[in-house]
Design a protein that fits this description.
This is DUF6888 domain-containing protein. This protein is an alpha+beta fold. The longest helix has 16 residues, at 4-19. The chain has one helix and four strands, in the order αββββ. The chain has one domain. Strand 2 (36-40) and strand 3 form a beta hairpin. It has a four-stranded antiparallel β-sheet with strand order 1-2-3-4, with helices on one face.
Length: 58
Amino acid sequence: MPTNEQILSCFTLSCWATKMYLPIYLIRFDERTGDVFFLAGEETEISIYPNGEWRFES
């Protein structure tokens, strides 16, 4: 299960993405690493770490 911090970050990023008219294609919890993977639009890939911090992936 994602942490409360990840849930809050995911909600914030979802609001940001939809405000920019980006479709959200996938939100997935990786059980191996504990990270949440967020895919929006054609190129926006974000990893959300268990502490709620996030970063863009290339």
